[in-house]
Amino acid sequence: VMADGWTDIKNRTLVNFLVYCPLGTMFLKSVDLSDTPKTADVLFGIFDKVIEEVGPENVVQFITDNAANYKAAGEMFAARYGTFYWSPCAAHCVNLMLQDLSERDDMKLTVHICQEITKFIYNHAYVLNLMRKFTNGAELIRPAQTRFATNVLTVQGIVKQRSSLRQMFSSDDWAAYPHAYKRKATTVVDTIFDVDFWESCVHLLKICVPLVKVLKLVDSEDRPSIGYLYESMDRAKEAIRDNMKGKKKLYMPIWKIIDERWSGQLHRPLHAAAYYLNPAIRYLPTFKKDREVEYGMLDCIDVLVSDSKEQDAIHMSINKYDTASGTMARDTAVRCRTTMRP
């Protein structure tokens, strides 16, 4: 069950409740909370009615955003039932990681400069048409306030067009622009030819692009992301470490920011179990069955399966799954490891 809070054009605070199952996502209902105090107790009562409507025995996970009141309410009723998990929205948490990184002074300055460049170009028709001429029609992504990921893509777009922008600002066409020597224009030109600026852009991308890839994964509707989230976060951190040439003084502060959101808010036993039960990952040489993964699997069995005989049967089957024996060794099963949804 997913709770998606938003504000409509009439400034009403609404929460949409949706149900996800293997057949797809279904809209359940919408609740208007405009005149309702959004305390944890009030949200608990609203969420509890939704759970009763769906049937607690049918719920594996209840997802909300990561606001403190939603988190408190979610944990309250998950503890009450004890048969499913509350989890914050993965996309929201990854976006918060990016926002936390954006508070670093170096990144904040780089994003601001890139925003100024795109504003200058897109606010002047002559410059915009000139840019499109030199980039063969390619656009620079304009900054937006909704997600820091959009700002990362703006920086990435500018870096991709580095040569084209330099050619443009050194061309006769640019020299013919009547306002080419005004202060805002010369500031942008100086920035485009500033080596330190480009180094700061590349540094930002080395840190943020791996997380943007995770965000795209969890925001995608192509396949359920829960079976890939655990590994994708590990890969993102490893990519950042490698991009920083393995220097701890460079990547450890970044890891700390990520881990505060991942370990403290997003990571749940369900993510570890989904990682473990994803055959596309489980049978790779890079699979890591560490204590955290094993605990996640065992915890899910205890929480999601109430019948002790079923629990015992699952435990007996785990060895066959681990060793790819029995039905898991069939040719069909092996072929479908990477083609079927986990």
UniProtKB/TrEMBL annotation:
DUF659 domain segment(s): 1-112
- Output the InterPro entries linked to this UniProt entry: DUF659, RNaseH-like_sf
SUPFAM superfamilies per the UniProt record, alphabetical: Ribonuclease H-like
Query: What's the protein called, per UniProt?
Result: DUF659 domain-containing protein
Q: Which organism is it from?
A: Nymphaea colorata (pocket water lily)
